[in-house]
Design brief:
alpha+beta; five-stranded antiparallel beta sheet; 15 helices
Length: 476
């Protein structure tokens, strides 16, 4: 069934009112895309429900009339998971942006899906607590989208991903049913925990409408140590050395090429005199004891071993924030070059091997492209960014990068890694899913899609193509 646009708009307007429906070209372009720039958005309408009941009604009408829904949060994704490219209706959660409840005993806050991550972080501070999942897009990403993509960020090495902090979740399935999963419990051994199924499902199984988040104790005087490394191989012994003595909040790395772009674009000063090919940024809490002495001793030991060439340590919160900018401003700084991004991961111990092999492939295949490395090396996740030359069209650039990605992903597969550590699969990584998941796993994933979204109305075509036929023994 292919309903005409007017029928869809009239039906949705009847559900959410005039304030909850948009069909103007500006809204379609804005809500139909995310931070990827390789797919042209083409939604037919944008619907903005105000509550869970309206979400359920919208999903039921999608099944009755035969239109598809693409969920939209802050649209900060980098794999095309929130792109509406084939006439879908975008369902955006901007109006569902309330913090509904907070319990200081449980240290849990209940948020609607449209609560911006940065607002949740501010609210936690107001309660004397801390929400530790943090990344560059926290000022615009939404908590529902964070859960749908299992967002990670810069402090995973200590605090884990979004999944670790979701204690309950309410989801509207592809049939319009409302599931209330786990209800904030710490212990709950009553069968399948659907909460963890929906976290990271990219809106293909259900629409997240409410999330119960656990908060934690704030960090104590976070201190940043920025190190200039001898080479890529030095990163792992430095990590191992510092982790033996300190509880690290973060262990990030970036290349000199990345730093040069940030320094030029943001008019920042070079952190120290030495120019190194690679840098590591460590954060740890200064507990007022011997922490700083330990950090300095390890720094000096790293210098003596030849792993560290130079370094600097923050002396205040403002200095720590400035050092963090050298890492956190990279994505924004290089965005004007329409970068092709690979978000890959292996076990931490195999990161140097991954970097060496991938760097060799990329240097051979992209001799005329600028390559920018950075990432969360402390948890095995690195970001390979290829910058588009000014004279090359976006389509030609995307095709060349996609072709060589197969060589990169061959390495990832051989090392037992993931083609997408935190950006999701969406549309851009969909062709490469078999490099991380075997055919039987993908078939089980498709079977789950059939169970929760039998009409295939939720984010169809994302992660894998249409559900299609399953082999005997799988649910229809």
């Amino acid at each position: 069934m292919n309903p005409d646009l007017q029928t869809i708009v009239d039906t949705l307007t009847g559900l959410v009112g005039d304030a909850g429906i948009r069909t103007d070209s500006d809204a379609l372009a804005r809500y139909g895309s995310d931070w990827t720039r390789f797919i042209t958005p083409n939604p037919c309408a944008v619907v903005l429900p105000a509550n869970t009941g309206e979400v359920q009604q919208i999903v039921r009408q999608a099944n009755l009339l035969g239109f598809s829904l693409v969920p939209s949060g802050g649209r900060t994704g980098l794999s095309g998971g929130a792109v509406a490219a084939t006439g879908e209706v975008v369902i955006a959660f901007d109006r569902m942006n309330r913090i509904l409840d907070f319990n200081p005993v449980d240290r849990q806050v209940v948020c609607e899906a449209g609560v911006v991550t940065g607002r949740l972080q501010e609210y936690a501070v107001e309660q004397g607590l801390y929400y530790p999942v943090n990344f560059a897009s926290a000022g615009s990403s939404q908590i529902g989208g964070n859960a749908a993509t299992n967002a990670g960020g810069i402090k995973v090495i200590r605090y884990g991903l979004t999944r670790n902090w979701v204690k309950g979740i309410k989801v509207v399935t592809g049939k319009g049913d409302l599931l209330d999963c786990n209800r904030g419990l710490t212990k709950n051994a009553t069968g399948y925990d659907f909460r963890h199924l929906f976290v990271g499902s990219e809106g293909t199984l259900g629409l997240i409408v409410e999330v119960t988040i656990e908060l934690t104790t704030p960090p104590r005087d976070p201190t940043v140590l920025l190190l200039g490394l001898k080479d890529l191989d030095a990163a792992m012994p430095v990590l191992q050395q510092f982790r033996r003595k300190l509880q690290l909040n973060a262990f990030e790395f970036f290349s000199e090429k990345a730093l040069a772009h940030v320094l030029e674009e943001k008019k920042l000063q070079r952190p120290f005199e030495s120019v190194c090919d690679f840098y590591a940024l460590l954060e740890f809490d200064n507990d007022g004891g011997q922490t700083l002495d330990i950090a300095m001793a390890e720094f000096e030991a790293g210098m003596e071993a030849g792993w560290i060439l130079d370094g600097t340590m923050s002396q205040s919160g403002s200095q720590a924030a400035t050092l963090w900018r050298l890492r956190e401003d990279i994505s924004e700084t290089i965005s004007r070059f329409t970068p092709y991004k690979n978000d890959i991961a292996v076990k931490v111990s195999r990161v140097p091997e991954l970097l060496r092999e991938v760097d060799a492939v990329v240097a051979e295949k992209y001799p005329d492209f600028e390559i920018i490395w950075f990432g969360h090396i402390g948890d095995g996740n690195v970001h390979l960014n290829i910058l588009k030359p000014a004279g090359l069209s976006v389509d030609a650039f995307y095709h060349r990068c996609g072709t060589v990605s197969e060589g990169v992903f061959d390495i990832v597969k051989r090392l037992g890694g993931s083609i997408s550590a935190e950006h999701g699969v969406g549309l851009l990584k969909k062709p490469f899913l078999p490099y991380s998941r075997d055919p039987l796993e993908i078939e089980y994933m498709r079977a789950l899609k059939k169970v929760f979204d039998p009409g295939n109305v939720l984010n169809p075509g994302k992660i894998f193509d249409s559900v299609g036929e399953l082999r005997p023994g799988f649910p229809r």
